[in-house]
Design a protein that fits this description.
The complex is a heterodimer of chains A (about 110) and B (about 110). Chain A is an all-beta fold and about 110 residues long. Helices cover about 0% and strands about 55% of the residues of chain A. Chain A contains no helices and eleven strands. Chain B is globular, with a radius of gyration of 13 Å. Helix content of chain B is about 0%, strand content about 50%. In chain B, the strands form two sheets. In chain B, strands 2, 4, 5, 6, 9, 10 and 11 form a seven-stranded mixed beta sheet that branches. In chain B, strands 1-3-8-7 form a four-stranded antiparallel beta sheet, with no helix packed on it. The chains are: A mainly beta (about 110), B mainly beta (about 110).
């Protein structure tokens, strides 16, 4: 299994849709997980951390499934401004660096 | 606060040339790192530092050197540029000594011909 796998998409959805992305990871010892957002030709920015109990921030919900080793990001009521690439990230085995997925591209259209 | 700054924004090098990509942060962050991003490859860690005077290799360190003489600065040196080093380079920093919530700089787009 690769260290981290994300469906690259693109996910093309209309405004108002609900969309979900998954990210699988291989390091079962990982303790910290994150979702970053990257706009075209810009730097990644932290969107939210993923806690064991799940994490919700407005229209965004992040969940962790340790048994199946994946994290998910749910976006409700999609906006045009949500169009971006979403990168998952988690600690490497030594806890010294973040490993990033290749990203999932979301395109929201009117 | 300026956050994380990177210079230059764009650079074209010829094969064999050397150069230094600059990265600075004014947030007193302990942890700093360098990534490269290539189409279809995602972000790959080149080098990182958990504090002044301490650096370590990441996933793709070959062809790059770093140093961390101050908390603020973390320059990345390309020793002898190769076309395979054409990429977008991002510097990032984190407030703790761990790569927790990383703040990224705007990136340097490097082309090696």
């Amino acid at each position: 299994r690769k260290e981290v796998e994300q469906d690259p998409g693109p996910f093309n959805v209309p405004e108002g849709a609900t969309v979900a992305f998954n990210c699988t990871y291989s390091n079962s010892a990982s303790q910290s997980f994150f979702w970053y957002r990257q706009d075209c030709r810009k730097e990644p920015k932290l969107l939210m951390s993923v806690y064991s109990s799940g994490n919700e921030d407005g229209r965004f919900t992040a969940q962790l499934n340790r048994a199946s080793q994946y994290i998910s990001l749910l976006i409700r009521d999609s906006k045009l401004s949500d169009s971006a690439t979403y990168l998952c990230a988690f600690y490497n085995q030594a806890g010294t660096a973040l490993i990033f997925g290749k990203g999932t591209t979301l395109s929201v259209s009117s | 606060n300026a956050g994380v700054t990177q210079t230059p924004k764009f650079q074209v090098l010829k094969t064999g040339q050397s150069m230094t990509l600059q990265c600075a942060q004014d947030m007193n962050h302990e942890y700093m790192s360098w990534y490269r991003q290539d189409p279809g490859m995602g972000l790959r860690l080149i080098h990182y530092s958990v504090g002044a005077g301490i650096t370590d290799q990441g996933e793709v360190p070959n062809g790059y050197n770093v140093s961390r003489s101050t908390t603020e600065d973390f320059p990345l040196r390309l020793l002898s540029a190769a076309p395979s080093q054409t990429s977008v380079y991002f510097c990032a920093s984190s407030v703790t000594g761990e790569p927790y919530e990383q703040y990224f700089g705007p990136g340097t787009r490097l082309t090696v011909t």
